[in-house]
Design brief:
The protein is an alpha+beta fold and 163 residues long. The chain has helices at 2-21, 62-77, 82-94, 106-112, 117-131, and strands at residues 98-99, 114-115, 136-149, 152-162. It has a domain at 55-133.
Length: 163
Amino acid sequence: MKSLIRILFLLLFTWQLLACANTSTILKPQPILPPTVTLNHALFNSDQTEVSPNQPILELTEKQQQIFLANYQKRIGKGVRPDQALAEFLQSKLSSFTYYGETYDAKTAMRLNKGNCMSLAMLSAALAKIAGLEFDFIEVNSIPIFDKQGSLITAIPAARLTY
């Protein structure tokens, strides 16, 4: 009985080796082609305003500057640190700020009191510039804001201003 099991095991093992040896098809790796992207230009509004490199996106109107400076100077007069005075002004604006999918320049974001996180970063930068504070932008690792127009979905990364 033991010899029969050994013979069966030996036959099975030999059969597996022969099966592997008879494989004649050699698979060649197929080159991976990059996907082709075709844009449907009808999905984009042709009436959207383009931002030129010379357009002052971090500037406010005279009236907006006066509103900020009056509030800012009042807080500085009370002994509040400059960066804290700016943060408190922004906090008072944010109570009614509407987070919206559009990106606006600083003056439009302040006038409409709405925009996405990039609009808020530009408004914050404009105020820091007026206050004479040094600032920098940092990309935040968070869930991006998605905007859908027709069947096109775009992702907008979040940004934060540091000063």
